[in-house]
Specification:
11% strand, single chain, alpha+beta, two-stranded antiparallel sheet, four-stranded mixed sheet
Length: 372
């Protein structure tokens, strides 16, 4: 009997705990739904601030520059080298005439000169004869100097009186892309800071058109949503406009984010549509510049007014301080007041005093009389 009662008590306790748990879950669920019911309508009804003035973007399809043909290379004329002067051959000396042998005298008598004495005489007489022939009959022979080795002949540079023509053999360099311009046409101060001028997509094949895209940006300026606001009949234009708009980066609009309208123009350079789009963009830039100048003028006027008010307040404070200083200095500078001399009449002697005096006078007289 005790075991069954214990089981019943345990079951009742478990049911009680389960009932409390269900009550707690129900209360917490009701509280959570109440909080959501209060906060969600406010978030749904709170609209993101929308910029009234749309941004204008132009994507221009520029024609590719055609490579210029290379000009013919100028032919360099190589001049013929001048013939070097050959050294003149030295004239061969003429053969010396051989002296005829003199007939030897027959030794008939012993007085004849001996032969050994004749030979030196003939040699002495024949030795100077060639010198005389060479120096008198032939011109003086000078040895031709040995020509030094000439340096290699370089072809002379042909001078042209005409100015040099620059030949462009390299392919034409593409024009630098313009720097992205921050669009400040909106009134909320939101501007595009990155990917503001995307290139014309090649898939469009020269198609032109205008597409308006509505962008939702967060507090950091990042695009979190994009939708076609004013579509074009060409679906490729709409698709490329969405792709280009999602890659943009804007300045921070604040804590709540913002909604921006962007007009994207796909144009071909030199076309009528391109000219009209550029005119619209220039007009918007002019209006934005005027609006900015007006705002700067208003800010300057407000600054001047604030400075004037501050100066006026400063003058008033200085005047009040000067007046207080004068009030403090007035008692010290004024002459001290002369005290009024008032003579008070001496009081008349009373009757009692007169009696005392008479008594004293009488005693004084009696004493004098006693001494006499």
């Amino acid at each position: 009997m005790s075991t069954s009662q214990f089981c019943i008590q345990q079951r009742q306790q478990e049911q009680k705990r389960l009932r409390n748990l269900l009550y707690l879950g129900l209360v917490s669920s009701l509280g959570l739904h109440g909080v959501l019911a209060i906060t969600l309508p406010r978030q749904l009804t709170a609209k993101t601030p929308q910029v009234e003035k749309p941004m204008e973007l132009i994507l221009v399809d520029k024609p590719k520059p055609q490579p210029q043909p290379e000009p013919p290379k100028p032919q360099t004329i190589v001049p013929k080298p001048e013939p070097q002067p050959q050294p003149q051959p030295q004239p061969e000396p003429e053969p010396q005439p051989q002296p005829q042998p003199q007939p030897q005298p027959q030794a008939i008598t012993p007085e004849a000169e001996p032969e050994p004495q004749l030979q030196p005489q003939t040699s002495q007489q024949l030795a100077p004869t060639p010198k005389k022939i060479l120096t008198s009959n032939l011109p003086p022979v000078t040895k031709a100097p040995i020509a030094p080795k000439s340096p290699p002949v370089t072809p002379p540079i042909l001078k042209n009186d005409h100015p040099p023509v620059a030949t462009n053999s390299l392919p034409p360099t593409p024009k630098p892309k313009p720097e992205p311009k921050t669009s400040e046409d909106n009134r909320g101060g939101i501007s595009c800071i990155s990917n503001c001028e995307p290139e014309y997509p090649t898939v469009l094949n020269g198609a032109e058109g205008n597409t308006s895209v509505k962008l939702t940006i967060d507090n950091n300026g990042k695009v979190i949503g994009a939708a076609i606001a004013i579509p074009h009949s060409n679906m490729d234009l709409n698709r490329q406009a969405l792709l280009a708009a999602r890659q943009m980066q804007f300045s921070s609009p604040g804590e709540q984010g913002a909604s921006v309208m962007v007009n994207i123009n796909f144009t071909v350079e030199g076309s009528e549509f391109d000219r009209l789009a550029k005119e619209r963009q220039q007009e918007q830039e002019r209006l934005a510049a005027e609006r900015k100048a007006k705002e700067e003028e208003q800010a300057r006027q407000q600054q001047l007014e604030r400075e004037q008010q501050a100066r006026q307040q400063q003058l008033e404070r200085e005047q009040q301080a000067r007046q207080q200083q004068l009030k403090k200095e007035e008692p010290a500078t004024t002459q001290p007041a002369i005290p009024s001399v008032t003579t008070t009449p001496e009081p008349l002697p009373s009757v009692r005093d007169s009696k005392v005096d008479d008594e004293m006078l009488r005693k004084f007289r009696e004493r004098i009389e006693g001494q006499q």
